[in-house]
């Protein structure tokens, strides 16, 4: 069982679909990432989805994803969220084009 304060490093990779492009999703994702101290990227995909990958403490990542989901609950139709081993390859969180 995981503790709510789990500070072990983790990576979350997610795809969000619905009305997630053109509604400020990427910039909100970046602002929330800064608030939670997580690094990674977010980008629009040609098929209309948004892809997000973030690394940081597992507890912070969980709270980050929950806040993002809550903020865009009226826009997200579907999501695929996977937890992966972190790579340590990110220095900051960025919006990719």
Spell out the key features of this protein.
97 residues, alpha+beta, Alpha-Beta Plaits, five-stranded mixed β-sheet, 5 strands, globular
Order of helices and strands: EHEEHEE
Shape: globular
**CATH topology-level fold name:** Alpha-Beta Plaits
Widest sheet: strand ordering: 4-1-3-2-5
Helix content: 25-40%
What is the count of distinct domains? Answer: 1
Structural class: alpha+beta
Biggest sheet details? 5 strands, mixed
CATH class: Alpha Beta
Tell how many strands the DSSP assignment holds: 5
Separation of termini?
38 Å
Unreliable stretches, pLDDT < 50, 5 or more residues? none
Tally of individual helices: 2
The gist of it:
This protein has 97 residues and is of the alpha+beta class. It has 2 helices and 5 strands; from the N terminus they run E-H-E-E-H-E-E.
Report what the structure shows.
The chain has helices spanning 25-36, 58-71; strands at 9-18, 39-44, 50-57, 76-84, 93-96. It has 97 residues and is of the alpha+beta class. The protein has one domain (9-96): Alpha-Beta Plaits, CATH 3.30.70.100. Helix 1 (25-36) packs antiparallel against helix 2 (58-71). The protein is globular. The model has no long low-confidence stretch (mean pLDDT 95).
